[in-house]
Amino acid sequence: MIAAGVLAGSIPASAGDPLPAKTPAQVLELLASHQVQSFSGTVEQSSELGLPELPAAGKPTGPASAGGAASVIELLSGDHTARIYVDGKDNARLQVVDQLAERDVIHHGNDVWFYSSKDNSAAHLALPAHAGDTARPDDGRGMHAMPTPGELARKLLAKVEPTTAVTVGPDVAVAGRAAYNLVLEPRTDATLVGRVAVAVDGKSGMPLSVQVTARGADKPAFRSGFTSLSLDAPDPSLFTFAPPPGSTVKEIQVPDKSHLPASFHEPGMAITPEQFFAQMAANGHPSVTGKSWDAVVGLPAQASSGSPAETLLRDPLLSQAAVVVPGGHLLSTALLNVLIMDDGRIFAGMVPPERLQAVAAGAQ
Amino acid sequence: MPSSVPADTPDADAAARPAPVPAPRSSGLSLLGSELKVLFGRRRTWALLLALAAIPVLIAIAVRVSSPVPPGRGPAFLDRITQNGLFVAFTAMLVSVPLFMPLAVGVVAGDTIAGEANLGTLRYLLVAPAGRVRLLLVKYAGALAFGLVAPLAVGLAGAAIGAALFPVGPVTLLSGGVVQPPEAALRIVLIAAYLAVSLAGLSAIGLFLSTLTVVPVGAMAATVVVSVVSQVLDQLPQLEWLHPWLFSHYWLGFGDMLRQPLLWDSFASNALLQAGYIVVFGALAYGRFVSKDILS
Question: Which of these, B107, B140, B35, B77, lies nearest to A246 by C-alpha position?
């Protein structure tokens, strides 16, 4: 389904209608100032992270067959198509289109519903009444607390400039729209990331696609972008959801009142990313070694059962993908390495495995 | 050996013989009419359709007499049947797509030309002012008609047996929304249309294979084998570059007809792909059939 509609991210824009030339700061300003409140579109994501490939027939395609971290891995790896509908700050719907199945997230006012057609299960999350006021990464673009977009762009640029080369590449066409191609290249060799390219819509300033290429690779290891996009307001009926008859409905408790889960998670998961991080924060303080691109995050060991390390290794897909290295297991992908030590500590970073091991040895 | 009809261009064919039917257009339509009458008057066609219709009946009875299916087990929609009989239609169409549908279509498409050749009737058909191209088109249209009737038979039989054995109510779509039974019936017809389009490429392949031989069973078997091979290739991740070109690639994409709002992407890609197969194998069949000496 995906291969036919190859992401348009790298197709050069048609020469007939060139965008006015802009400096990186101006493109960042455009990105920061974009005010698109309503749109609908199709997003395709594909990633070749170097995880073992499974035959399509045996691929876990839903939460019913994938539990725990594997379902997150499943969403991050391989090819996915999703339809996104957004109308203002309070209405959003995400449909992850699987073969003969679908996973939905519907946000309407203070309600967030999760639905998985695979096992006909729904989950409901009631947001605290004031949640609408907090800035969310999905929309609003932090317009409340932030200074002017231009100021923000300059500040951001000044901050990343020492570690990252920010350039504007040749224009690209994404979902039929001409877009600026903002390219971020780490100035250090110590990271796995070669370059990150963000396509910024020339008219609206909306980010249209993201491509992450590993160092030394010519094709992006991860890319996600619109294949079709409409800036019209979607049909309001899309944002109403009632659990269908016969479905199992679960009520999710809000883990942290001030923070809204931004990432897509599924009702069938044994542990959600929020729980994972909440648990992580409650049980020990993660340490960060290094700065920016070559940073390594270390998690201390935990005595209690069900620690992150155990959870990760218990997962059949992950334990298969992990390689045994001196002192622990290494989960290696094109962009990210995770070292799970036998003593329960976890180190992760967008760096070569040797650096993880060095940090692990140094932290002892 | 009976006398042979030499290879001719269709124009020369038509020009060389006086036409007993004055309007060539109505002759094409009447040829199609008689082809459909012969096809659907055949006991074998009815046996194929009955066998296909038996799939939902078997599924419905099996679910009825066994314990409830836990959610998420078995083929998609199977666990919904006890709550809503209309899901029998969806399950049966899903189950019949990989093998039973291609099998039935392979039998009909493989029989088109080779069957007439085998019976010794092909030359009589060509003696009539039909012309080879028109005969090929009419035969292909007959195979297409069967490709539409076959999924409809499965869907309608499924809905009927489901309504007889289980309660019928609003149908939950993949997106979590519900639609009333009339709209659900429309979705069943849409899926049948999707499957009819899906099978068009296979029918063209069958038509081509049928022009290669006078043994219909050979063409039928070859068509079915081709469909199985295509589906096996579609499962191998190492051949990912090939997948979008396989005619069976979108066969299971009919789930898009069960989303809210309807997703037409796979329908469009599928139609385009099948059109490509029709052009290629139609041209091959044409090239083979008009240049062939018909001996039987």
Answer: B77
A246 reaches B (C-beta below 8 A) = yes
Q: How far apart are CA A89 and CA A79, in angstroms?
A: 28
The superfamily (CATH) of domain A3-248 is Lipoprotein localisation LolA/LolB/LppX (2.50.20.10)
Question: Which segments of chain A belong to CATH 2.50.20.10?
Answer: 3-248
Q: Which residues of A touch B169 (CB under 8 A)?
A: 245
- Pick B175's closest partner by Cβ from A42, A102, A245: A102
Counted across chains A and B, CB pairs separated by less than 8 A come out at 93
Is B245 contained in some domain? yes
Tens digit of each residue's pLDDT (9 = 90 or more) over B148-170: 999 999 999 999 999 999 999 88
Determine the pLDDT at residue A358: 87
pLDDT tens digits, one per residue of B215-255: 999 999 999 999 999 999 999 988 989 999 999 999 999 99
Task: Tell me if the pTM is above 0.90.
Answer: no
CA B208 – CA B195 distance, rounded (Å): 20
Contacts of A119 in chain B (CB under 8 A): 71-72
Instruction: Give the architecture-level CATH label for domain A284-362.
Output: 2-Layer Sandwich (3.30)
**pLDDT higher than 50, residue A267:** no
> Element (H or E) spanning A297, and its range?
strand A296-299
Tell me the pLDDT band of A264, cut-offs 50, 70 and 90.
Answer: very low
pLDDT at A62 over 70: no
Number of domains, chain B: 1
Contacts of B261 in chain A (CB under 8 A): 235, 238
Q: Is residue B264 part of a domain?
A: yes
Contact (CB, 8 A) for B198 and B274: yes
* E runs forming strands in A187-247: 193-201, 207-214, 222-230
Neighboring chain B residues of A94 at a CB cutoff of 8 Å: none
B293 pLDDT band, cuts 50/70/90, is confident
Shortest Cα distance, chain A CAs vs residue B263, angstroms = 9
Which residues of B fall within a CB distance of 8 Å from A102?
Answer: 174-176, 255, 259
**Closest residue in A to B69 (Cα–Cα):** A119
Q: Are B226 and B234 in contact (CB under 8 A)?
A: no
3-state secondary structure of A94: strand
Contacting residues of A for B269, CB less than 8 Å apart: 1, 4-5
pLDDT at B278 exceeding the cut of 50: yes
Using alpha carbons, select from A295, A225, A306 the residue that is nearest to residue A9.
A225
Asked if A56 and B234 come within 8 Å (Cβ–Cβ), the reply is yes
Q: Is A342 on the interface with B (CB under 8 A)?
A: no
Residue B14 within any structural domain of the chain: no
Per the prediction, chain A carries an average pLDDT of 76
The sign of the torsion formed by the CA atoms of B128, B131, B133, B137 equals: negative
Full domain range(s) for residue B106: 23-290
Question: Using CB atoms, which residue from B72, B176, B237 is nearest to A64?
Answer: B72
CA-nearest residue of chain A to B234?
A56
User: Rounded to whole angstroms, how far apart are CA atoms B114 and B118?
Assistant: 6
- pLDDT at residue A281, rounded to an integer: 56
| Interface mutation target, options A46, A94, A100, chain B, most CBs of B under 10 Å | A100
Tokens of B101: 């549908």
Q: Does B35 reside within a domain?
A: yes
**What are residue A287's DSSP bridge partners?**
A298
Query: Given its phi and psi angles, is residue A144 left (phi above 0), alpha (psi -120 to 50 degrees) or beta?
Result: alpha
Is B234 in Cβ contact with A99 (below 8 Å)? no
Judged by CB atoms closer than 8 Å, whether chains meet at A64 and B71 is answered as: yes
